[in-house]
Amino acid sequence: MKVHGDKNSGNCLKVKFVCDRLALPYEWIEVDTRNGGSRTPEFLKLNPWGQVPTVVLDDGRTLAQSNAIIRYLARGSDLIPPDAYLAAKMDEWLFWEQYSHEPYVAVCRFHMVYLGKPASALDENLVKRGAAALDHLERHLGQSRFMAGDVVTLADVALVAYTRLAHEGGFDMTRYGAIRRWIGETENNLGLAPIG
Amino acid sequence: MKVHGDKNSGNCLKVKFVCDRLALPYEWIEVDTRNGGSRTPEFLKLNPWGQVPTVVLDDGRTLAQSNAIIRYLARGSDLIPPDAYLAAKMDEWLFWEQYSHEPYVAVCRFHMVYLGKPASALDENLVKRGAAALDHLERHLGQSRFMAGDVVTLADVALVAYTRLAHEGGFDMTRYGAIRRWIGETENNLGLAPIG
């Protein structure tokens, strides 16, 4: 399996985290998205959206959309709850991550890290909605050890990917004790070195 | 099961479409979202995000996020491909719908239908991204009968919900022959009266 990704992208790192955690063999192909690497004619044949991550399975079939990829790769593993209701709660967070967290928390970081803007130049609406997403996470993680129950699932993988980088998008993570506790426990489970 | 929803909302209608198609018994509880019905203290106990649709199962447990709800309700049915790869392609579209389609196609309609704006007053960026999403659908449906293969899946349910209402958001659907063919076939499969 080949994973086409950008190691600065949380969406791409989700795939790496799952492969490493489950010891799935893969070749990582670094795509230079800042310089059009995901917009070449060759790449657009793999993914017409021109997005990373994109996975090419051994039989040549492709998969896109980070959360769809990890849901496929982790099938049958302990990262997806066997109980249907808990799996649905995991899915709630996967969809929430893409709708209400990534477009704000990750996009603020993109503007600062990729485009070089200072925090003071960020769009106020993005910052406000990113903080609202983090506030929501903090409330949830004050009551629950992990996102969808007592064990690490794909919901933790998906949400930790950009949350552990949120300080790079100007968010003050010292405010979020429950999130910091959860980042540490999730990093530990995934075998990641602490980033904070 | 109780489905709390707003019948003007495509996200809520996804749940109705799946329940009706699979003959799942449910009680629909109409929530007046325009007048704060999803922000009352009682509602926030069911869903701290204050969003519809929200489902309350017979044992009192709740589920939110439209695509997570339909994925749960349709488990084991013909609306989810038994093949893991095809199910992952279905998931691709479910995540794409929430990230790249709904925030533009549905939000333009929201501004016109809920807020009463004329099409000329819509945010140009929303209109441009909505048209890009529809262009992408048109290309895909020119090559594929349904979203994830030859049969109707949750990807069709999720995408048809707002695509069949896109004209109410100012999009000129006469440009999209393949989309119109697919809307008709999907409506027929779901037992819906044509809306266009």
Structural commentary:
The structure is a homodimer of 196-residue chains. The first copy, chain A, is of the alpha+beta class and 196 residues long. Chain A has two domains: 2-73, Glutaredoxin, CATH 3.40.30; 84-190, Glutathione S-transferase Yfyf (Class Pi), Chain A, domain 2 (Up-down Bundle). Helix content of chain A is 51%, strand content 7%. The first copy, chain A, contains seven helices and four strands; from the N terminus they run E-H-E-H-E-E-H-H-H-H-H. The first copy, chain A, has helices spanning 10-21, 41-46, 66-73, 84-114, 124-141, 154-163, 177-190, and strands at 2-5, 27-30, 54-56, 62-64. In chain A, strands 2-1-3-4 form a four-stranded mixed beta sheet, with helices on one face. In chain A, strand 3 and strand 4 form a beta hairpin. In chain A, helix 4 packs parallel to helix 6 (154-163). The model of chain A has no long low-confidence stretch (mean pLDDT 97). The A-B interface holds A 48-49, 57, 61, 63-69, 71-72, 75, 84-85, 87-89, 91-92, 94-96, 98-100, 102-103, 136, 139 and B 48-49, 57, 61, 63-69, 71-72, 75, 84-85, 87-89, 91-92, 94-96, 98-100, 102-103, 136, 139.
